[in-house]
Amino acid sequence: MISRIDHVSLAVNNYDKGADFFINILGAIPGASGHNKVMKYFWQIFSLGDLSRFEIISPTDPGSFLDNFLSKRNHGGLHHITLQTPDIKKAMKVLEENDIPYFGYNEYEDFWKEIFIHPKDAFGVLIQIAQFYPDQWLDESVKLSGSKKWQVDKTQSGCILNISHPGGGRIKFQLTTLEVKELISDLEKSG
Predict the structure, then answer these.
(1) How far is 173 from 94, CA to CA, in rounded Å?
(2) Domains in the chain, start-ordered, CATH in brackets?
(3) Do 45 and 31 contact (CB within 8 A), yes or no?
(4) Angle at 81 (CA atoms; ends 91, 11), nearest 5 degrees
(5) Is 93 helix (H, G, I), strand (E, B) or coil?
(6) Distance (Å, whole) CA 138 – CA 134
(7) pLDDT by residue (tens digit) across 62-114?
(8) Which of 24, 85, 114, 140 has the most CB atoms less than 10 A away?
């Protein structure tokens, strides 16, 4: 039902301060972003390292859905955890079969379908379950270009093997010349 944890979402009062901390201090790479004019907030996805992602959400106008949450947390805090599912309808069915209530079913065209489980039903944390294509939300610098599942970059002592991850982004392995030869041998044996 669940493929993986995609990201955690942090709610902050001041987006610029939050983004500055994560980008300039911790080295996060900004990805997709957008404004939700109805719920009055801004969101942005960030990548850290090869596969870690988080989101910053921040109110844009009075009356934001974040107002109550942030009024209780001076500096902001963990708002929700987003879990990726390959099939939102199947996830809904499993929850229904187990008497776990959910709310907020939304479909945003063809690229995002979501539901939420209230913290009172999920051990104190708001859970968002969503069906989507993760590479759509990432900066080009953290994913492989095109449809190829790997990329090899030669180094002085071997190579860096980049492998596309099904959850979006890529994993980098630094290999020595000896490890490259062993990998080639193992691949030849498996083919």
Answers:
(1) 37
(2) 4-137 (3.10.180.10), 143-190 (no CATH)
(3) yes
(4) 140
(5) helix
(6) 7
(7) 999 999 999 999 889 999 999 999 999 999 999 999 999 999 999 988 889 99
(8) 85
Calpha distance 150→111 (Å, rounded): 25
Q: Is the dihedral of CA 166, 167, 172, 173 positive or negative?
A: negative
CA–CA separation, 118 and 98 (whole Å): 15
Residue with tokens 């187990």: 98
Burial of 127 (0-12, 13-18, 19+ CB in 10 A): buried
DSSP 24: I
**b/e string for 161-173 if b means 16 or more Cβ within 10 A?**
bbebbeebbbeee
83's CB contacts (< 8 A; 6+ apart) are 2, 3, 4, 5, 6, 127, 128, 129, 130
Three-state SS at 118: coil
Token pair for residue 110?
Answer: 């063809």
- Which pTM value belongs to this model? 0.86
